[in-house]
Amino acid sequence: xxxxxxxGWSAMRLRIDCARVGRILHAHLAGEVSEADARWVxxxxxxxxxxxxxxxxxxxxxxxxxxxxxxxxxxxxxxIAFGESLVEDPRPRKGTGTP
Length: 99
Description:
Radius of gyration: 16 Å
Number of helices: 4
Order of helices and strands: HHHH
Oligomer: single chain
Distance between the termini: 31 Å
Shape: globular
Number of domains: 1
Helix content: over 70%
């Protein structure tokens, strides 16, 4: 019983942490968070496969956009909307295989 409660608490804590990381990921990757937040986010990204993959995707998109130069405003708007949708619920939706 206690193990099940601990597992449930750990899963809930991870979802809370994932949501928090999602809210500050962009700022973290841009180096715009406090030192304490940077250490915490870095540790979470190393421990959480889902958030680590999100961070890697963010880095790849940012790098690609930087190489391209000017980007159409519509593309930026769609990218922002996609990022915000990830923050709303960081867990994959059942049956879709996508967040």
